[in-house]
Amino acid sequence: MKRTRLTTQLTVLGIALFSGAMLRAVAAEGQGTATVSPEQKKARVERGAYLVGMMGCNDCHTPWKMGAQGPEPDMTRALTGHPQDMVMPPPPAASGPWIWHGAATNTAFAGPWGVSFTANLTPDPETGLGKWTEEMFIATLRTGRHQGKGRPILPPMPVKMIGKANDEDLKSIFAYLQSLAPVKNRVPAPIDPPEAK
């Protein structure tokens, strides 16, 4: 077949468009924004909701209140972490077999690791996971470090157990958390134990 100038130009244009599309797809995959169909996203959110409930995430990331049957998670503040307006006094010293202590809200804990506060898991961009990527979330749970490279995730977060979940389950948990309404609640930074200061 005789190649004309027009067909050559069209061929070059086609290759350029294909290459550009491939590069965008690779870049999106690397940034955790690979295309997910609406059906797949819906399925992930539903499974994530199931996993969050089954793994007991609300036990620590949702402040507790006193209910009719005793202490219970306050689901009006679901997964918002330690309340920013609840300033904790210094924890009691460890004594005998009592080596750690927990706040009444079950969102602050003191032990040999210092003092830890449960994180705001809603997608608020300033105080929650709003600026996190799927890769950051998975890296955190795989490495036990903030965003996969920062400070250690402290007890009692069962990061080693949850980090054993497969990628699809972790993506589903992240999809569910990102589907929640963002709540502004700035959780305090962890406090080092006295001997580490």
Which labels suit this protein?
single chain, 197 residues, mainly alpha, 3-stranded antiparallel sheet, two-stranded antiparallel ribbon, 6 helices, 9% strand
How would you sum up this structure in a few lines?
Helix content is 38%, strand content 9%.
As a percent range, the share of helical residues equals: 25-40%
Q: Which geometry do the CA atoms define?
A: globular
**Proportion of beta-strand residues:** 5-15%
- Helix/strand-derived class? mainly alpha
Describe this entry's structure for a reader.
The strands form two sheets. A three-stranded antiparallel β-sheet has the order 3-4-5, with no helix packed on it. Strands 1-2 form a two-stranded antiparallel ribbon. The protein starts with a helix and ends in an 18-residue tail after the last helix. The chain is globular and about 85 Å long. Helix content is 38%, strand content 9%. α2 crosses α6. With 197 residues, it is mostly helical. The protein has six helices and five strands; from the N terminus they run αααβββββααα. About 7% of the residues have low confidence.
SSE blueprint:
Blueprint lengths: L4 H26 L7 H17 L3 H4 L2 E4 L2 E4 L27 E2 L5 E4 L2 E4 L16 H10 L15 H4 L4 H13 L18
Antiparallel strand pairs: 1-2, 3-4, 4-5
Helix pairs in contact: 2-6
